[in-house]
Write a sequence for this structure.
């Protein structure tokens, strides 16, 4: 894990994470001062300041809460055979760390609101010092009070391993740039993460001859996230299968379908973080307002994982209950498989 975080190739994500893990607050101050231009002696809470479009933030939060509340997984109890009952019980995580890129209030909403809805007890936010006041103001509006003016790989390390000031969390979520995602992958050996939600990407699948102005709008909206953002156009003609194959090959974070032929592919696309159907469903509607989550897989991860949802802030516990008669019925299976695998102590548990 040797990704350089600045022009000096000797400063790597691995080095920063290791330093924070070893030296705690002192390392956080050092890297914040060096990389973010601060002059702190220890990590500092962000102070809420600045004007917010309060109604817009609250409207976005309402839709996010409504959509994610509907996703709550149900507990399951089933007698799979006489005397053998299994239970799958969902429970919220105790603590979650959220990374919010510079000034992106919408990303705070997309992560903090589902965490609250899931019932997470402690929500910790880290966001770069520049823009931290605005994020803190939005957090206060949402009822989140632990916001640190701390960015980059050092923030991820702090949430993963803890320091004198910041207690570690059970899971880290949220989008970020290359260094943040590299740090998330690095610490994932020790703490759960959501997914690598990195530089933005969009595939616009449009019917041949579709309005180029709308196509350009979709591309420009995603490319303005930064120089490493990516946009592609797939032209959809008579060969729908060929167009679908191209869309699937990109496995993009966002897919916009424009025109009747393109829109007909909506129900068949598997490799995408989120699919937006028709000219009145611009991708930024999902970024800000629909309630659908905008923390989505990038870099091809959409082939195997989806975006953030309520279950991202929960985990399931399996409870197994077996009666005396139930164990008697299971015993031949336990004994045969234990013998096959050479585990005599396992075999002996079948008879009580």
């Amino acid at each position: 894990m040797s990704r350089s975080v600045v022009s000096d190739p000797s400063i790597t994500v691995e080095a920063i994470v290791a330093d924070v893990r070893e030296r705690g607050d002192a390392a956080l101050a050092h890297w914040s001062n060096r990389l973010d231009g601060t002059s702190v002696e220890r990590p500092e809470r962000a102070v809420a300041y600045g004007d917010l479009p309060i109604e817009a933030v609250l409207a976005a939060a309402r839709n996010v809460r409504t959509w994610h509340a509907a996703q709550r997984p149900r507990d399951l109890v089933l007698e799979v055979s006489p005397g053998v009952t299994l239970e799958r019980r969902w429970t919220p995580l105790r603590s979650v760390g959220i990374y919010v890129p510079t000034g992106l209030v919408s990303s705070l909403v997309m992560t903090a609101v589902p965490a609250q809805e899931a019932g997470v007890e402690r929500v910790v936010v880290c966001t770069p010092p520049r823009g931290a006041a605005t994020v803190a103001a939005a957090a206060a509006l949402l009822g989140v009070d632990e916001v640190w003016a701390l960015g980059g790989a050092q923030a991820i390390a702090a949430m993963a391993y803890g320091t004198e000031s910041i207690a570690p969390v059970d899971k880290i979520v949220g989008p970020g740039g290359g260094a943040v995602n590299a740090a998330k992958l690095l610490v994932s050996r020790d703490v759960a993460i959501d997914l690598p939600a990195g530089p933005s990407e969009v595939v616009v699948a449009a019917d041949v001859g579709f309005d180029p102005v709308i196509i350009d709008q979709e591309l420009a909206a995603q490319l303005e996230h930064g120089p490493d953002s990516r946009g592609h156009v797939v032209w959809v003609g008579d060969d729908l299968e060929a167009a679908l194959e191209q869309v699937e090959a990109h496995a993009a974070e966002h897919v916009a379908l424009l025109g009747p032929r393109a829109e007909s592919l909506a129900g068949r696309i598997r490799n995408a973080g989120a699919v937006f159907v028709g000219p009145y469903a611009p991708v930024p509607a999902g970024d800000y307002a629909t309630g659908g989550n905008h923390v989505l897989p990038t870099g091809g991860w959409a082939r195997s994982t989806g975006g953030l949802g309520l279950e991202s802030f929960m985990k399931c516990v399996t409870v197994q209950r077996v009666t005396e008669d139930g164990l008697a019925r299971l015993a031949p299976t336990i004994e045969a498989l234990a013998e096959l695998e050479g585990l005599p102590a396992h075999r002996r548990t079948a008879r009580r």
Q: What stands out?
A: DSSP finds 13 helices and twelve strands in the chain. The first helix runs from residue 13 to 23. The radius of gyration is 24 Å. The longest strand covers residues 84-92.
